[in-house]
Design a protein that fits this description.
6 domains, Dna Ligase, domain 1, D-amino Acid Aminotransferase, Chain A, domain 1, 6-stranded antiparallel beta sheet, globular, 14% strand, alpha+beta, 46% helix
Length: 919
């Protein structure tokens, strides 16, 4: 059904070059700057033949003319642009004064004449909906719906012009001003159009989502419906009906009839009123199956037209279906790309959640991992560039591992589910939920191929694991790992140094990355696996009474591990704090000046030269590390020392006066000694009985293997980060060359391009201008940074929700128990370890942690993170330090405030909020 538009209606009434009025049939998506998001969508739908009630837009040129009549405009905008989004009262005052000033401004006569003339041509007897349409509204990546006002059932010329003025003024409601300030949208750059549309007087109305907004599933249409005008539903005055329909088959999946207590109806004289509905009506279905089918078909057509899922407002008048708005569903997380090349459902796990770094990554950092992951690669010829894995997909500038092939095999599904569930409980549960869907099970016959591939890849690794578990002397593992790592670093350094800077070195860097991970997995991964497997065996044997011990004993064995490279780094940070503590002037310098500036000035204060000598030794050893280090583009300690200085300052800033030098090392040594004593006690207790000798030998072997293997957990990543540092130097070198040639504006922009793009730019003469594309990709990263990535998802967009726990105290925040113990203390929410200081004895609350964060652990009394599992990095280090930890606490950094007293229940896995926190 197409909209009925009068063909004689003039395209515009204008002053100068810009039209003041545009009818729907002359509007397309390209007119968004003139008619705002709502107007552009209505015009686009009307032109495409969708059933849109007729109407027109009062353009942003008319709004500009209205603003020009306000003499206080510049001062008002200056006040608005100064808002930071944090001071709610300041925003309220600025918005109120702006509305008051605009309420006094006259509507320009040319605008009033154009509006009324067009209205008369369409028919003055009808009633009209007058709706705000801002240029920062219903955008592809941000919906500002509901920020401005709408007026329904408007009749008469005076009421129409008054509604237009009120729409203009509503650009400056308190909520709209505050929303723009918090979202980073400039007030001066947002303009307002007004949509004037023949009002439909519906029997039924509602909202249709062409993808399920709750689960994210793209194949499910979700419809809310109620009687009368849609305002009752939108305003939350009724419990609307909910209908869910399979988009492909048309099957009605769910019908939930709501208690529709009232309907909003139009008054004959204008305005609306609330009608209380009788019991039989309020609990009746608003839509029958025939209406559902028509709605779904229309929704699919609209989604196809726009090429993305839509949030559609619809209504039914006298049996005819109308669309009164559509906008993108901006809450949906993007689908993984590339899309599967078969018709089956695919299941993905978040690479960032497993690596404890969930921030978006630029294209080059993404490609690094696509090159390094050795499985899922297509074959390449000898002269081709290294191939990239198909096992990693990209969504929202984040990587997701496609686990479909292994999950389709029943044996591998149990293995992978068990391993990932042990590492990260939420990931394991989410994978099982998605893999249980019938749509996924229909592809299970493909599992035999995956089993063969799995065997070829993992059997050699498992053979090495068994050798280490049964025969290899655990004391030999650490020297072997260190020798292997140093050889790989020397080899990579020599290969990169042997070729010229620029395109040749980038090509070699790409080859180095593509070859590295396979060797690391086969040689170093068995050391990690033997520690994890041995630990699980030890727990199981103790639980079954084969070995005699307690849960406390098992926890003690995971602390004070030998050879952990990240722990050694953290202890070295404690050593640096010890060098600062006796020198107040040096401490104040580090506390009060920016990090780089403070280090430059440190040589001139007491204690500074000795500190700088230790600092240089630290940077030589660990300078390639830093927060978010799996992302090639993130600064390292050698580039930005601020996180380390913050950790040092936190360690000395509130430390007790009696705290002695080396206390952190003494604490770690005490944990190691306790672990050794626990090991002897476990062996002695297990020696009783006829088979005691064998059981004691088994206990001793497992303890040695577990402590040696768990202590080596960080070495593979340390090797990867060191190689990434060499590659990073080569990449930045190429970036500097492109800046010199005018292709890039700054060196850091090099990370916004893939290797082949950089190589082509370096080879071209003259070099292409990459700056516009760099800005476009940087904007994509900023947009994706606002998204919250799921820990698992399906190829149709479904993100599973986990069942809520029922064993929690009232008000407690649920999580995963990661390190045993209970601690009460003051919370410190840290979002950026470079700019926020965690003081000794505080409880660290963070979105996630990786090795770049762990210097904070030396001083923390406890740990709470939003991301993590039992075997993720932060949990392992927390257990090693003996600090209680709860991870995977949804929304922890928003629900806990700095200064608030909290209790971390690291044994049972929850956090209690003990007071309201700092004001």
């Amino acid at each position: 059904m197409s909209a009925v538009e009068p063909t004689h209606l003039t395209a515009s009434r204008s002053t100068g070059m810009e039209p003041l009025i545009l009818p729907f049939e002359r509007i397309s998506a390209a007119d968004l700057p003139r008619v705002g998001g709502k107007g552009a969508n209505l015009g686009e739908m009307a032109r495409a033949g969708f059933p849109v009630p007729p109407g027109f837009c009062v353009t942003t040129a008319a709004f500009d003319a209205f603003l020009a009549g306000c003499g206080e405009l510049q001062a008002l905008y200056a006040q608005l642009e100064a808002l930071d989004g944090k001071d709610v009262e300041a925003a309220r005052r600025a918005a109120e004064s702006t509305r008051a000033a605009l309420g006094r401004a006259p509507i320009p006569p040319a605008v009033a004449d154009a509006v009324l003339a067009t209205w008369r041509e369409l028919g003055t007897e009808a009633c009209w909906a007058v709706r705000s349409s801002a240029t920062a509204e219903d955008l592809p990546d941000a919906s500002f719906a509901g920020q401005q006002d709408t007026y329904l059932n408007i009749r008469g010329a005076e009421a129409l012009l008054d509604a237009v003025r009120r729409c203009w003024v509503s650009l400056f409601t308190d909520r709209a001003v505050l929303y723009r300030a918090r979202s980073g949208f400039g007030h001066h750059g947002v303009r307002l159009s007004v949509v004037i549309q023949r009002m439909v007087l519906p029997e039924v109305s509602g909202i249709l989502f062409t993808a399920d907004p709750i689960t994210g599933r793209r194949g499910t249409v979700s419809i809310d419906a109620g009687f009368g005008l849609g305002e009752a539903l939108v305003s939350g005055l009724i419990n609307a009906d909910l209908y869910k329909v399979d988009k492909e088959t048309g099957e009605v999946l769910e019908v939930r009839v709501g208690d529709k207590a009232l309907a909003i109806r139009p008054r004959p004289e204008g305005g609306t009123w609330e009608e209380r509905l009788p019991e039989a009506t309020r609990r009746a279905r608003a839509l029958d199956d025939a209406a559902l089918r028509e709605l779904v078909a229309l929704g699919v057509r609209i989604e196809t037209h726009y090429g993305k899922p839509q949030d559609i407002e619809w209504c039914i008048e006298a049996g005819r279906l109308y669309v009164v708005q559509t906008r993108p569903i901006t809450s949906l997380y993007p689908l993984p790309e590339p899309a599967p090349d078969d018709e089956g459902l695919h299941v993905y796990a978040s690479f960032g959640h497993i690596q404890m770094m969930t921030d978006p990554m630029p294209p080059l950092a993404v490609q690094v991992w696509q090159l390094m992951i050795p499985f899922g690669r297509p074959p390449t010829g000898s002269g081709d560039a290294p191939s990239e894995t198909r096992a990693l997909a990209l969504a929202g500038s984040r990587l997701f591992v496609d686990l479909t092939s292994v999950l389709r095999h029943p044996v591998l599904r149990r293995v992978i589910g068990g391993v990932l569930g042990h590492i990260y409980e939420n990931v394991g549960q989410g994978l099982e939920t998605l893999a249980s869907r019938p749509a996924f099970q229909r592809g299970a016959s493909r599992g035999r191929t995956s089993m063969r591939a799995f065997g070829r890849f993992f059997l050699p690794i498992m053979a090495r694991v068994l050798a280490r578990l049964i025969a290899v002397n655990p004391d030999r593992l650490l020297p072997g790992v260190e020798a292997f790592s140093e050889a790989r670093i020397a080899e990579a350094r020599a290969r990169l140094a042997a070729v010229a800077p620029g395109e040749a070195r980038l090509r070699e860097a790409r080859r180095v990355l593509s070859e590295l991970f396979s060797r690391v997995i086969y040689v170093l991964a068995p050391n990690i696996a033997v520690g994890v497997i041995g630990d699980r065996l030890l727990h199981r044997l103790v639980q079954r009474g084969v070995l005699i011990g307690t849960q406390e004993d098992l926890s003690a064995l995971e602390r004070g591990l030998p050879g952990n490279i990240t722990t050694e780094m953290d202890l070295a940070v404690g050593d640096l704090a010890d060098r600062v503590r006796p020198h107040p002037a040096l401490a104040e310098l580090l506390r009060s000046r920016p990090a780089t500036e403070a280090l430059a000035a440190a040589r001139d204060v007491e204690g500074g030269p000795g500190f700088l000598e230790a600092w240089r030794a630290f940077i030589d050893r660990y300078g390639m590390r830093g927060p978010g280090e799996i992302d090639l583009s993130r600064p390292r300690y050698k580039d930005d020392p601020a996180p380390l200085i913050a950790a040092i300052v936190g360690g000395i800033g509130s430390a007790p006066a009696h705290r002695s030098a080396g206390e952190h090392r003494a604490h770690h040594a005490a944990l190691a000694a306790k672990a050794e004593a626990t090991s002897e006690r476990l062996c002695a207790a297990s020696r009783r009985g006829l088979t005691g000798g064998l059981r004691a030998a088994l206990a001793r072997r497992l303890v040695r293997v577990v402590r040696a293997g768990m202590g080596l957990r960080e070495h593979p990543k340390f090797l990867l980060v060191r190689v990434l540092d060499l590659v990073r130097d080569s990449v930045r070198e190429a970036g500097a060359l492109l800046v010199q040639r005018g292709a890039l504006a700054r060196v850091d922009d090099v990370y916004l391009f893939r290797f082949e793009e950089l190589i082509a730019a370096l080879e071209a003469s003259p070099a292409p201008d990459l700056r516009p594309l760099a800005e476009e990709r940087r904007a994509t990263l900023r947009r994706d940074a606002r998204r919250s990535p799921p820990f698992v998802m399906a190829s149709d967009g479904e993100i599973p929700s986990l069942a809520a726990r029922v064993d929690l105290p009232p008000g407690a925040l649920s999580g995963t128990a990661a390190s045993a113990g209970v601690v009460e203390g003051v919370a410190r929410v840290v979002l950026d370890p470079a700019s926020e200081v965690l003081h000794a004895g505080e409880i660290l609350v963070a979105p996630h942690t990786d090795p770049g964060w762990t210097p904070l652990f030396v001083h923390a009394a406890g740990l709470v993170t939003e991301v993590g599992g039992l075997m993720t990095h932060g949990s392992v280090v927390a257990r090693e330090y003996g600090i209680p930890a709860v991870v995977s606490v949804t929304g922890a950094t928003q629900r806990i405030r700095t200064g608030q007293r909290i209790r971390v229940e690291g044994t049972r896995g929850f956090v209690e909020l003990l007071d309201g926190g700092a004001p």
